[in-house]
Amino acid sequence: MKFLLIMHSNPQIWDALTEEERTEVMSGHGAFMETVTKSGELISTAALADPSQSAVVRVRAGVPAVTDGPYLEAKEFLGGYYLVECESRERAVELAALIPDAGVAGLGIEVRPVVFAAGR
Fold first, then answer.
1. pTM value surpassing 0.90
2. Can you give the residue ranges of the YCII-related domain (predicted)?
3. How far apart are CA 87 and CA 48, in angstroms?
4. Which CATH number fits domain 2-113: 3.30.420.310, 3.90.1300.10, 3.30.530.20, 3.30.70.1060?
5. Distance CA 34, CA 28 (A)
């Protein structure tokens, strides 16, 4: 089964961390990627830019209209994800608990089953 392990970011929480805590979170991602790569469970991962760099495209009467900024204004935003393939939801939850953001107060990892994916 495929699962998207979604990391939601909150700049206020990140800014409240000490430099040492931020370094620990970042190095923890390296360790997590090594673990799921060795186990063969990692399909892909991506860290996303700040939502201020995004654009929303809507097509009306065949004409695209582009709005700068995120789709929704919120203090939390999608910061990145890990796409994994594992045997069960329980294993996906185990993997999510290994992602360092899960251990930061005010943050968490959303585990969502993938219904359809092209490719692997």
1. no
2. 1-113
3. 27
4. 3.30.70.1060
5. 10
